[in-house]
Write a structure and sequence with these properties.
Layout: E1 2-8, E2 13-15, H1 20-34, H2 36-44, E3 47-49, E4 52-54, E5 58-59, E6 63-70, E7 73-85, H3 89-102, E8 104-107, E9 110-120, E10 129-133, E11 140-145, E12 148-153, H4 159-176, E13 186-201, E14 204-217, H5 219-228, E15 241-243
Antiparallel strand pairs: 1-7, 1-9, 2-7, 3-4, 5-7, 6-7, 8-9, 10-14, 10-15, 11-12, 13-14
């Protein structure tokens, strides 16, 4: 289930460069205010598979009518669009309840009025599907260095990047208890040039990437990828994508 939320502030707002942590904090709080037990479960536990924990909620960057920069960060001119998605109805409904009840979102010193909330229909996920990120993708692996296991961030130019995304997606399906046909696969194809970003998340530097890619494979897995996000740190604002409309749509 995917929500499209539109904010209006009446004037441009300024947010820090690494603003997704503000959205992350608001999202947890909004879910918890409507459904305290659900909020606590997502924050403290999540869904587990092979010792990996998944929150099963993903959100996009903010998309304003116009964006600029200043010494303090980003200047966003409304209306501002935001997407939040989950394969579970409950957290999305809880977010909607809070947004409708409170009528605004507070990000730092900014108050964003909720202008519109709508549930987006699921796009066609048959055959080869062209997609583009609306929040950056993160994929990493562990390597041994000086006797210690260290995290190494992967690039879309490396085949391992896409392999890690597929393994991550299959784990999410297992964590949710979804029945997946034996041998089901998802194939990725990098399309065009990708942009690399280095973001600071809760004191940790995270290498992430934005760009276009094609998806093909088991429909239930494609739907899970669309609703839960690809790769790591989804609840921190990474791994969300949209389907690029084809001509005639």
């Amino acid at each position: 289930m995917r929500l499209h939320i539109v904010f209006n502030t009446g004037k441009p707002i300024t947010l820090p460069w690494h603003y997704p942590h503000l959205l992350h904090g608001f999202l947890y709080g909004a879910i918890a205010r409507a459904r305290p037990q659900l909020g606590s479960f997502l924050h403290e536990e999540g869904f587990v598979a092979e010792s990996h924990r998944y929150k099963m909620v993903v959100f996009s960057k903010l998309y304003p009518r116009r964006a600029g920069t200043c010494s303090a960060g980003l200047i966003l001119t409304p209306p501002i669009h935001w997407w939040v998605s989950s394969p579970l109805v409950a957290p999305v409904e809880a977010l909607a309840v809070t947004l409708l009840a409170e009528g605004e979102v507070v990000l730092g010193s900014n108050h964003l009025a909720v202008e519109r909330i709508e549930v987006e229909p699921v796009p066609e996920l048959e055959g080869r599907v062209l997609c583009e990120t609306i929040s950056p993708l993160v994929a990493s692996t562990g390597i041994m260095s000086e006797g210690k296991l260290r995290k190494q961030f992967l690039s879309p130019d490396e085949p391992r990047f896409w392999e890690v995304l597929e393994v991550n997606l299959l784990r999410k399906a297992h964590a949710l208890g979804l029945w997946i046909k034996e041998g089901a696969r998802v194939r990725f194809e990098k399309v065009g040039e990708w942009r690399s970003k280095l973001l600071t998340v809760q004191g940790t530097q995270v290498r992430c990437y934005e760009g276009r890619f094609a998806l093909e494979g088991e429909k239930s897995l494609l739907l899970l990828a669309y609703e839960a996000g690809l790769g790591e740190r989804n609840m921190q604002g990474f791994g969300m994508f949209r389907v690029v409309p084809t001509q005639g749509q």
